[in-house]
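Z., the sequence and structure:
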Amino acid sequence: MPPLSAHRSDSPLRTAVVGTGGIARSAHLPALRTLAAEGEVELVAAVDVDAEAVAHVAADNGIPHASTDLAAALAETSPALVVLCTPPAVHREQAVAALAAGAHVWCEKPPCPSLSDFDAIEAAEGGDEGPHASIVFQHRFGSGARHVRALLAEGAFGRPLVAHCQTTWYRDTAYYSVPWRGRWATEGGGPAMGHGIHQTDLLLDLMGPWSEVRGMAARLVHDVETEDVSTAQVRFANGAVATVVNSVLSPDEVSRIRIDCERATIEVTHLYGYRNADWRITPAPGVPEDTVGAWRDFGDDEPSSHIAQLRALVADIRAGRRHPTSGEGGRRTLEFITALYKSAFTDAPVRAGEVGPGDPYYTVLHGGAPGWAPVTTREEEART
């Protein structure tokens, strides 16, 4: 692929934030303020459907333009980067609008409710030259993952053989009182999509292409349309096998990835973000001590975080590089999750590349499966 055109100005990237709720205030705005102080970005606009909320956020963060109209904000402020912190159901429309305005997009997870939506966003990109739409997959960008990824890529640990990926969290009834949560049309899926997606993405980033998934899903506690727990068995193109568990039913919360290779076991255990100290490398018998010492030297500690990914994204835009969570680098994770749901609801294995246009799971993750697809108003009326 030819190199992308770099952002040709040395001035800060003009940046707009769309959606000023919890994730924007807790993660995106602090990261953006830090990079603004370093001269890398300039916050030029904030957009939200709630006029009072967006006015407060703009005032608190020194953002000159507050609006409830995304199209108007794009036209009036000409951002180079648009950060989407809105619910998944509106990501496609907003991302396409931002790309059409010539802005790169950085979109919170879940990226969108279906592969068809993702492909529509990708089709609106500016080709090799950009702009492009990237996903918030911040766990790829900590120093721990960077160090382990490099060692795996060079074969230092030998062949990957067995992996485990666990996102076992706890969410109560109040969490699902937010109207868009737990619904296929607005959230896209349950914990496989909305919670475990970060660990799944990191697993795929470390292990390489997957070839087959066999999934299982259940709705055990919460009164929602989606699942509240899922499991999967995975086979990778390199022959390795893995298990993936996603849950919102687990009081003892943990996020964990473990990869057993020929020469070592690599494990990271954390909750919402890791540091170097959260990684552990256990050598197989006979590995020289100096080799193990080099493996365990992670260098400077850069925690996985929104700011870690934002730094990388801004650097990629400036250098004219495609960001690794855009295009195919983001799609592969959504494709895996789609395959997990299809396998769970059809009780059959699903292979990479199988879900495409014409497949019911391409346009909606429940695929119309009985017991999982939402009950229509007409069906509800027929029962009464």
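The chain has two domains: 13-135, 139-302. The chain has a mean pLDDT of 94.

Let me know what you think.
H.
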